[in-house]
Amino acid sequence: MIAKIARLASVALAASAVAAPAALAQVKLPPTVTMTAYDTGTSGFNITVAVGKMMKDKYGSDVRVLPAGNDVARLQPLRVGRASISAMGVGVYFAQEGVFEFATREWGPQPLQITLSSLDCNGLSLAVAGDIGVKTYADLKGKRVGFVVGSPALNQNALAVLAFANLTAKDVKIVEFASNNAMWKGMVNNDTDAVFGSTISGPAKELQTSPRGITWPAMPFSDKAGWERMRKVGPYFTEHNASCGAGEFSKDKPIQMGTYPYPIYSVYGSASENDVYNLVKAMIDGYDGFKDNAPGASGLAVKTQAKNWAVPVHKGAVKAFKEAGAWSDDQEKHNNALLKRQDVLIAAWNEFIKGNPSSDSAKFAEEWMAARKAALTKANMIDTFS
């Protein structure tokens, strides 16, 4: 697979031009498209390279994929116009909200909008060691849960799963690790009992084959109260039937749990409707040309997109979705509400900056979060991070 991805990258980034087929002339892409993604070798990078090869083969557009190790680095080229689209993770939601690494004078809430995103057979939840007798997430009370220092996304996700079981950080023993890989090693070495991750990750498979084993407690869709609690902490989670990866489930025997899209192809709201429409339509029409060329790429099918997610869909993508019969009145209503939320956050930020906030970074973030909470409360909107 690595060799195959390398070949795809080589073709996708080649400089020679290929004429677009006449049958697809309605899609007009620029000669070069620049995308940002997670680091080389990650599923987000590999999927983006596969999409790039399709765009080269079908539309004659050379695609440059810029790898970056964190959300700020992925968004900066998009922000300054050096990239057309970014393959983001849940960091796109944190950027919209202006929290964690975006609660700084340099950033603040970002008016980002999404296009296509991938939902595949894997789930995202707390992996639990199989040797501690946990049957439900409520059984984690008093157990050890892994956190990663400086990784708000992973930690927030763990708290969201705990919230499903009506637990908080005070109900468990938080064990901090220096990195994601170190945290998973901690599971194998019996230094912690539960960590957040994907069912298809390599470390999850390693834990499964270790003496401890692995289990993923179910999160029944019928538990409406549990899902409501979870979404107050992680509103970006969606119900999902996980059917692949490390664990006792399969296509014929899935487990109900949470997930969120990844990668999430994101743009700024100010991006040209026509440009975004053409990018999204190219990905929809060219789906068969990349869906089997990287793990997770098949999850970009337009008909299986996450409904009513946490970040609004760009109007150019909405146009393409409508043409594909993949947009509803309910989604339109939800999207408008999310756009209004972004307006409230941007207005709150502009007012906050005018007020001469502290020059100390920690104090600045504290003052901003208070102003943010006040603005959302006034607008009768949920503040997930209070």
What features would you highlight for this structure?
2 domains; alpha/beta; 39% helix; D-Maltodextrin-Binding Protein, domain 2; 386 residues; globular; five-stranded mixed sheet; 12 strands
Overview of the structural elements:
The chain is built from twelve helices and twelve strands. The strands form four sheets. The chain has a five-stranded mixed β-sheet, sandwiched between helices. α5 links the parallel β6 (144-148) and β7. Residues 1-25 have low confidence and may be disordered. The chain is α/β, with parallel strands linked by helices. The chain folds into two domains: 2-119 and 261-334, D-Maltodextrin-Binding Protein, domain 2; 124-257, D-Maltodextrin-Binding Protein, domain 2 (3-Layer(aba) Sandwich), CATH 3.40.190.10. 39% of the residues lie in helices and 16% in strands. It has helices at residues 2-12, 43-59, 71-79, 91-97, 152-164, 180-188, 202-209, 224-233, 273-285, 315-323, 329-354, 361-378, and strands spanning 32-37, 62-67, 85-88, 112-117, 124-129, 144-148, 173-177, 194-198, 214-215, 238-242, 255-259, 264-268. The termini are far apart.
